[in-house]
Every structure is written in structure tokens, then in C-alpha cells.
Write a structure and sequence with these properties.
Chain A: InterPro entries: KdpC (IPR003820). The structure holds two protein chains of two kinds. Chain A is built from seven helices and five strands. A two-stranded antiparallel ribbon of chain A has the order 1-2. A two-stranded antiparallel sheet of chain A has the order 4-5. The longest helix of chain A has 37 residues. Chain A is elongated. Chain B has 19 helices and five strands. Classes of the chains: A mainly alpha, B mainly alpha. β3 of chain A pairs parallel with β3 of chain B.
């Protein structure tokens, strides 16, 4: 047994150093170099800029929309909402009073906006990351009437915009990117 | 449940079954130390590593030496990571200027990554610098996975060799697996992830002024290179707190499918490699069949529960499945599938918050881990854990027919059965013991976020995840305290190495035995009867041990939910 230990010492220490250099330094740096060369937009966060070149967001990560004139995003438990440095879900369980109180309040708010019928689940639930960039088509369509009213445009135009922006996938669920949708909304001619 | 949901689930299993033999063949080449096409690229690296560290890759090791060398390497890695985390504040590669970790958090994290658990007591983006992520954590994702597969190879040799004193060379196994399997796949995988929207940069925070005029800070970093091995090596420790729910870790439904596939890929392949190693690939397919049956049963329950949703919210006027803690781009089916995949394997990644799953939907991930993570399981760890159950199953079958049990040509005797029971007993001792303790002492009770039975589920889940080296969580539990960091650290260490040492002893004991050819009296270990027996043994052992604790947590929570009781 003693000989087993002494014979292990040198390989254990040297292999730790060698593999740390290969896997902890060389591999991520080489992948960074390759990523920056081949896919620079994605490797740097898929950022979106306005006409002046200012960064207004990322198509991948969600940002908060709370104004009535925009499609509003889901509730978020990331920091105070859509905090890019504090991703998190609410972690509230299905029998949690805090969860039910929060959902009840959000349902009441939607009812106040004139939404009738069943409320799409994603509209009143917090996502896993708190940075969900998407809404379900139903959750977006439920807001169409409000947006049309505030912006003074025909509800059909808003709904058509949702349909045009919806992405479907056999491997996941249909979704609408809220930033893309709201930029399209701003670009609509009056 | 929808047709599309089941399409995804069956597509997932179908792709893996198609890949089982090719991956198994590749692994078998590494198991035998044969030359692969990749030796042209990485052969010089391999030889250089051996030369610098004074290793003779052809020098065979007995089980004791194999175990001691494996443990020494893991302890050295543990100390490296502890040092990096404690010195984080003065090391480079820290664009956010994050401070060093507290001793208990650094200990917990170092054990967590060394043991292939990747429990996150820390919040990735708010705790770890880029250097810590790369040098402190990513290396473990490779090497703990390589260690697991090497150990599986050692056990395979125990079954395959006759009258042998040795079970291979740890350094050769571990180095070959890293260089010819994990690293090449990760290079291609990382590029796919970057192309799909996962960041890969040394930069830190980007300041955004949003469309509404608010300020948002977005964190970037070397995410893709870590994400690839996090999945392939069934590690699960995310770059971000929200793990694979975070859009930067898992941006699309396609990346989600590929992540799930990569979690199971090596585990599926290893069952074939085992069959090939013992000279009958049907032995491997029998094991895989039992695993897939248990897996699909779990998926069916979780998917059905999550699709049915929360009746308390339905009463308020909310439609549809349970979306609390889930991402819209995945939806219910892909989230439910992901949760069962990561807990069947010991991956521990999450693409939705398990704490917010329905009680029974969240019980399946918990029960998967309590079964010992042998449903596919962690890379290497899954198959060696499963073979411990196989030893018990032939023992039970032997008792029933009154014959000395045999498995793949080796007589299973008292020593192997005792060691298998010893390894399997670690699980209930730690899970039930530590959960019971934490349910009565004040620092334990301070942990749970949710009240009522769900709070107990959070505690039970934490220790189950730790000892099973899974790493997923009912994340409401405030685990970053000296009490939980310490106790969970101990649980992770026990769960890893107190299983491995008896397992290696079995490998050594089996290798020394002669070959017993199959006779008319042997219990066949390839047919449906055997698969049924395996499934039965695993479910009965897991069920008898853990059902009472599940009754106090998820089952009580479920009954409360259908009565509409809140806590």
C-alpha cells in the first residue's frame, strides 16, 4: 500500500498541471479564437444595435418589457426582473401561497386589460432563467387588443405581426421573440 | 400530452439506439488501448504527458494500486481547484473583479466538481471569474468524466479477464479517454453551440440600454467550451446560475435536443462496450433494455404530470401545462424530458426549475437519483453502478434456484455480494441520515424556501443529488451556508469514492477468478426474464428504501395540491 502511494505522487502532480494547461487554458482559448473567427456575432452574445450603433439588447437573452405600448414579457425572478447578472427561477413550488398570490395578481391585471377566457400559462408564470426572450403565440395574441388600443392601430395588424414573427419547432414549442416582435411593432407605419 | 411531445421523446431514444454500437466500438478501441485515427493528432500529446510524468502506460496495476493512483489524482485536482477559488480575487481572467470564495463554499465547489456532481452552491455569474470557470471547473468536467469511464473499464476487465492479478493502468485509461473521446467531440460540439448562439469570449459584462430605455447588464464569457463538456461528461455545472435554462447556455430547441443526446451518448455506448468486452454483445443490449424501460417509465410520469399542470392555477383561470420555471422555447415536453434525462444520468443540468415542477413530476427526477443513477447513469458511473445491481440480481436468482450464481462467466460469491451491498448502502445511509438530521436542527431548517411538504422535498432532494453525484437541485434551498456546504460536501465525497473503492475491489476479485462456462443450469443473463429481474431488483430496492421519505415529501405535496391546500 505504501509503495502504491509513493508511486502515485509524481504522476498525480504532473498530470494535474499538464491537464490543467491543456483543458483549462489551451482548449477554451483555442475555442474562443475559433469562435471569434467563425461566428463573431454569436460568440459575442448576438447583440442588437440601433441606428446609432448603441447596443439595445441581445436576440438570445430576454429584456424586460413593462410598458403598455409593447408586448410585455413574462414575470421574472432574475434579480428585480431580467437582471442579466442574476439568472434564476422563482423556485416556488406548486402549493406555495406566494406563487398563487403572484399569479392571482397577474391574472387580475390581465383581466383589467380586457383579456377574457383562459390566460395562457406562460404569461403569468416566471421562466426558469428569468431571462426568457420569448412568449408563446397565445400569450402574445392576448396582448394584441391592448397594444392596438394604446397605439391607435387596427388589432388585426398587431395579430398579423405576431403570426409573422412566430417560430415553430418540432423539437420544442412555438414561440415569439419579444425583442424582435417589439422592434417590428415600432417599425410599423402608422 | 401531445403527439409532438411523444415524437420528440421517441426521436431522442431512436437516435441514441442508432449511435449505441458506433460509440461502443470506439470506446472498445480505447478499452483495449488500440490505435484510433485520432492518434495522428493527439498521439504526441499522449506520449509527451506520459514522459513528463514518468508513466509507463503498459504497466498493469492491481485494483489497490489502480484505486490509490485514481484517488491521488483526484485529491491533487481537488486541491488545485480549492486554491484557485480561494485566490480568485488576485488571479487574472476576472473581468468582473469578483472576490475570492469563502472557505466552505470553495470546499463544497471543489468537492462538487471533483466528484462529477457539479452541485452549485454558488451562483455562476455572480461568483465565478472566467479563469475559475475554465481552470477551476472545466478541467474537472473532463477529468471526472474520464475517471468515471476509466473505472468502468477497470470493472469490465474484472469480468473479462481470467486468473489475472491486474485490471489495467489508470493513467493510460484516463488519458486516452480524455484525448481520443472527450476532447475531440467537445471541439466540434463547442463550435456547434457557438453557431447556435452560445457566447465564447474572454470579455465580461456588456451594458445594454433596452428598447424601453432601461439599463441591463448582460454577462458574456467562455460559455460554449464549458457547456460542451458539461453535458458530454454528465457534469451539469452551469456557467450561469440558471444552468441550461439560461438562453446563453441553451438558446434553441435544437441545442436542447443535442444537449440531451450528449448526456446519454457515452452511457448508451458503454453498455455495448461491456457486452463486447465480455464476449457477448447481447449482454450489453440486455442491460440497455432494462435501463431504457426504467427511463421511458419515468418520462411518461413526469411528462403527464407537467402537461396536466397545476389545478390550483387552473382554478384562477390559467390554462395549460405547468410553465412556472420553464422556458417558452422548450415548452412542457422538452422540459420534462430534459429533467428525466439529467437525473437518470448523473448530469445535474436543468433547463427548467425542478423546484417548481408538479409534486409527482418532480418526484421522478428525485427517484431516478435514489435508484442509484443506474438508468443510463453518469459516464462510467452509470454502468459500474448498474453492474453492482446485476451482481445482486444474479445472487437473488441464485438463491431462488439454489445454485452458485454466475454472471458473464464469473462465479459471484460472498465477497462480491458483500462489497456490492456495501457500495449500494452508502446511498440510503447518507440520504436518509442527513435529510433526517437537517429536518430537525435549526441550520438545516433555515434552508428551505417553500413551506410544508415541499420544503422537506427540497432538503431530501439536496442530499439525494449530492450523494448521487448528480448536482441538480430544488434550487429554492439556501444551500450556501457553512452547514449545507459542509454536509453536502461530505455527502458528495462519500457518494463518489465510497462506491468506487468497493467497486474496484470487486473488479480485482473477479479478475482473479477462472472462467466458468455457461451450462444448462446457468441463469441466462440475456433474455426478457433477466431484463425483468433487473428492473424488479432496482425498483424494489429503491422503492423499499425511499418510499417512506417520498411519502413525506412529494406524495404529501401532491395530495395537498389536488385538495387545493396552500403553504
Amino acid at each position: 500500500m505504501g509503495k502504491d502511494f509513493t508511486s502515485a505522487l509524481r504522476p498525480a502532480i504532473v498530470m494535474t498541471i499538464l491537464f490543467a494547461a491543456l483543458l483549462g487554458i489551451a482548449y477554451p482559448l483555442a475555442m474562443t479564437g475559433a469562435g471569434q473567427a467563425l461566428f463573431p456575432a454569436q460568440a459575442n452574445g448576438s447583440l442588437v444595435r440601433d441606428a446609432d450603433g448603441r447596443v439595445i439588447g441581445s436576440t438570445v437573452v430576454g429584456q424586460a418589457f413593462t410598458a403598455d405600448r409593447y408586448f410585455q414579457t413574462r414575470p421574472s425572478a432574475a434579480g428585480k426582473g431580467y437582471d442579466g447578472l442574476a439568472s434564476s427561477g422563482s423556485n416556488l413550488g406548486p402549493t406555495s401561497r406566494a406563487l398563487v398570490d403572484r399569479v392571482t395578481a397577474d391574472v387580475a391585471r390581465r383581466r383589467g386589460e380586457g383579456v377574457t377566457g383562459a390566460i395562457p400559462a406562460d404569461l403569468v408564470t416566471a421562466s426558469g432563467s428569468g431571462l426568457d426572450p420569448d412568449l408563446s403565440p397565445a400569450a402574445a395574441l392576448a396582448q394584441a387588443a391592448r397594444i392596438a388600443r394604446v397605439r391607435g392601430i387596427a388589432p388585426d395588424r398587431v395579430r398579423a405581426l405576431v403570426d409573422a414573427t412566430t417560430e415553430t419547432s418540432l423539437l420544442g414549442a412555438a414561440h415569439v421573440n419579444v425583442l424582435t416582435l417589439n422592434r417590428a411593432l415600432d417599425a410599423l407605419p402608422r | 400530452m401531445t403527439f409532438q411531445g411523444w415524437f420528440l421523446i421517441l426521436l431522442f431514444v431512436g437516435i441514441l439506439l442508432a449511435l449505441t454500437r458506433p460509440v461502443g466500438l470506439w470506446l472498445h478501441a480505447l478499452y483495449e488501448g488500440r490505435r484510433t485515427p485520432l492518434h495522428v493528432v493527439f498521439g504526441p500529446v499522449e506520449r509527451g504527458f506520459y514522459r513528463l510524468s514518468g508513466i509507463d502506460p503498459a504497466a498493469e496495476q492491481g485494483w489497490r494500486r489502480y484505486a490509490v493512483h485514481m484517488l491521488s489524482f483526484n485529491v491533487a485536482l481537488l486541491m488545485l481547484t480549492y486554491a484557485i477559488l480561494r485566490l480568485q480575487g488576485v488571479l487574472p481572467g476576472n473581468p468582473q473583479g469578483l472576490a475570492r470564495l469563502s472557505p466552505d463554499l470553495a470546499f463544497n465547489t471543489a468537492v462538487s466538481f471533483t466528484s462529477n456532481t457539479n452541485w452549485q452552491s454558488y451562483g455562476g455569474e455572480s461568483t465565478m471569474s472566467n479563469l475559475s470557470q475554465m481552470l477551476g471547473l472545466t478541467i474537472h468536467n473532463f477529468l471526472s468524466a474520464a475517471t468515471g469511464i476509466a473505472l468502468a473499464f477497470a470493472l469490465f476487465r474484472g469480468f473479462a479477464r481470467r486468473s489475472a492479478a491486474t485490471i489495467g493502468n489508470f493513467w493510460a485509461d484516463m488519458t486516452r479517454i480524455t484525448l481520443y473521446l472527450l476532447l475531440p467531440i467537445c471541439i466540434a460540439y463547442t463550435l456547434f453551440l457557438i453557431a447556435s448562439g452560445v457566447p465564447q469570449t474572454m470579455a465580461g459584462v456588456v451594458d445594454v440600454s433596452t428598447l424601453e430605455g432601461a439599463r441591463q447588464s448582460i454577462l458574456l464569457g467562455p460559455v460554449a467550451s464549458q457547456e460542451a463538456i458539461k453535458m458530454l461528461g454528465t457534469n451539469g455545472g452551469g456557467f450561469f446560475n440558471a444552468n441550461s435554462a439560461h438562453p446563453f447556455e441553451n438558446p434553441t430547441a435544437l441545442t436542447n435536443l443535442v444537449q440531451m443526446l450528449s448526456i446519454f451518448l457515452i452511457g448508451f455506448g458503454l453498455t455495448w462496450t461491456f457486452g463486447k468486452a465480455v464476449g457477448n454483445t447481447r449482454q450489453g443490449w440486455a442491460i440497455l433494455s432494462a435501463m431504457v424501460i426504467l427511463f421511458l417509465a419515468g418520462v411518461a410520469v413526469t411528462y403527464a404530470q407537467e402537461a396536466a399542470g397545476n389545478p390550483i392555477l387552473h382554478q384562477i383561470g390559467v390554462a395549460g401545462g405547468n410553465m412556472e420555471g420553464k422556458e417558452v422555447r422548450f415548452g412542457v415536453a422538452a422540459s420534462a424530458l430534459f429533467s428525466v434525462v439529467t437525473t437518470a444520468a448523473s448530469c445535474g443540468a436543468v433547463n427548467g426549475m425542478l423546484d417548481s415542477f408538479t409534486p409527482l413530476g418532480g418526484m421522478i427526477p428525485l427517484f431516478n437519483m435514489q435508484l442509484g443513477e443506474v438508468v443510463i447513469g453518469g459516464v462510467g458511473a452509470g454502468i459500474y453502478g448498474f453492474l453492482l445491481f446485476a451482481i445482486l440480481a444474479v445472487f437473488v436468482a441464485g438463491l431462488m434456484v439454489g445454485r452458485t450464481p454466475e454472471y458473464v462467466g464469473k462465479k459471484i460469491e460472498a465477497r462480491e455480494v458483500k462489497l456490492a451491498v456495501l457500495a449500494i448502502a452508502v446511498l440510503p445511509l447518507v440520504i436518509l441520515g442527513f435529510s433526517a438530521l437537517s429536518s430537525v436542527v435549526p441550520p438545516g431548517l433555515a434552508g428551505p424556501l417553500n413551506k410544508g411538504p415541499h420544503g422537506f422535498s427540497e432538503i431530501l432532494y439536496a442530499f439525494t443529488s449530492a450523494v448521487g453525484n448528480n448536482g441538480s437541485a430544488f434550487a429554492g434551498l439556501s444551500a450556501n451556508t457553512p452547514y449545507y456546504n459542509g454536509l453536502l460536501g461530505v455527502a458528495m465525497w462519500f457518494g463518489r469514492f465510497f462506491v468506487i473503492v468497493p467497486m474496484l475491489a470487486i473488479a480485482g476479485s473477479l479478475a482473479a477468478k477462472t472462467y466458468t462456462p455457461e451450462s444448462a443450469g446457468s441463469f441466462p443473463t440475456t433474455g426478457a426474464l433477466w431484463v425483468g429481474l433487473l428492473v424488479g431488483i432496482i425498483l424494489i430496492l429503491g422503492g423499499l428504501t425511499f418510499l417512506p421519505s417520498l411519502a413525506l415529501g412529494p406524495i404529501a405535496d401532491h395530495l395537498a395540491m389536488i385538495r387545493g391546500q396552500l403553504f
